[in-house]
Specification:
Length: 355
């Protein structure tokens, strides 16, 4: 190698430290909006801090932890060049898992991996995360942005996050509380949420040849706008239910669909019977099924079909639960019931046709 050959550098390898610093400055104002009284310090430390003395009011606090991403929904955001909603999806996927056991989400951290740092884009992603944390009632205490040239393309990125919540031990929700006679309440999804996008993208983009800017009368908007509809954040609504009435279990309807996720909180010996005629899925689900010739079984085990969260409550709590959810602007309805399980039954079955 001659003396005139330029020396290697981080910038020459594709990592722009100055762009990363700019992104941090741009995101600071959004992080500042997503705090709780227990938040300690600000953005820029090596670790996020949260004042655990707040847990002293609990007799036996159980910490709940969850981590998730948003899957290939990020490919739709990149295709549309719209990046300020995907963060809300990320928060929803984490905090709505936390609240299933009755835990109040306390704080989150995020991880954003990019092929090339575009400061405005990173700040837009963080804006969505901060807005999601505000909607969930939790703090955004830290995160990491990593630049991986050569691994991701210049306009590619992925996001992940982790959250922590707390629940009093004697108020822990789950399958052990569920009894025969309990009623199953559905809470409407805002759309596809953040699961099944590999199937949806394959059907709409690859098989049907549609693109994100296609106007679809049944949807009342473009394909891209429909697919980017943020995942509903149910955490505060579920916590409100636990305060106003008796709840035995929740189930967050994500990958695997309604039956598989509800089965996780139906104990041995019991069975959940759900009635499809109690709701009509939004048009996007029918379009995916029709355009892709997707069998109902395949749709129902891949997509939420319009149900984003489920609550299992005793019979005398149904009216109060539905009233609480209606008051909070959540469309909810009686979906089914819990009965004793026959030897040859699955944990969850759906019957009937959609209304």
């Amino acid at each position: 190698m001659s003396d005139s050959t330029p020396g290697a550098s981080y910038a020459a390898a594709g990592v722009d430290i100055e762009a990363g610093d700019t992104a941090v400055e741009l995101m600071k104002k959004w992080v500042a909006t997503a705090q709780r009284p227990e938040s300690v310090g600000g953005l820029g430390g090596f670790a996020g801090l949260f004042d655990a003395s707040a847990l002293k009011r609990y007799e036996r606090p159980l910490l709940a932890s969850a981590t998730d991403g948003v899957g290939t929904k990020v490919a739709v955001a990149q295709r549309m060049d719209v990046h300020d909603t995907i963060g809300r999806d990320l928060v929803a996927m984490v905090v709505d898992d936390l609240v299933v056991c009755g835990a109040e989400p306390l704080f989150m951290t995020d991880y954003i991996c990019v092929g090339k740092v575009h400061p405005d884009r990173v700040a837009a992603i963080v804006k969505g995360i901060a807005e999601g944390c505000t909607l969930a009632g939790c703090a955004l205490v830290g995160g990491e942005t990593a630049e991986h040239p050569g691994l991701l393309g210049p306009d590619e990125y992925d996001v992940a996050g982790a959250g922590t919540g707390v629940v009093e031990a004697d108020r822990l929700l789950g399958a052990e509380r569920v009894r025969a006679g309990d009623q199953v309440i559905a809470m409407a999804a805002s759309g596809l949420h953040s699961n099944g996008y590999s199937l949806v993208r394959h059907v709409l983009f690859d098989r049907a040849g549609w693109d994100v800017d296609r106007e679809v009368a049944e949807l009342g908007r473009t394909v891209g706008e429909e697919l980017l509809e943020p995942t509903r954040i149910y955490s505060l609504d579920c916590l409100a239910l636990t305060r106003t009435t008796e709840v035995h279990a929740f189930s967050h309807i994500t990958g695997g669909g309604l039956a598989a996720n509800l089965a996780r909180v139906v104990p041995e010996g019991l069975h959940a019977t759900l009635d499809r005629s109690t709701w009509t899925p939004s048009p996007i689900f029918g379009l995916v099924g029709e355009l892709g010739h997707v069998a109902r079984y395949e749709l129902e085990r891949t997509l939420n079909m319009g149900v984003g969260m489920v609550a299992i409550v005793p019979p005398d709590s149904v009216d109060a639960a539905l009233t609480t959810l209606a008051d909070r602007g959540i469309d909810a309805w009686l979906l089914g019931e819990i009965t004793d399980r026959d030897a040859d039954q699955e944990a969850v079955t759906l019957h009937g046709d959609h209304a």
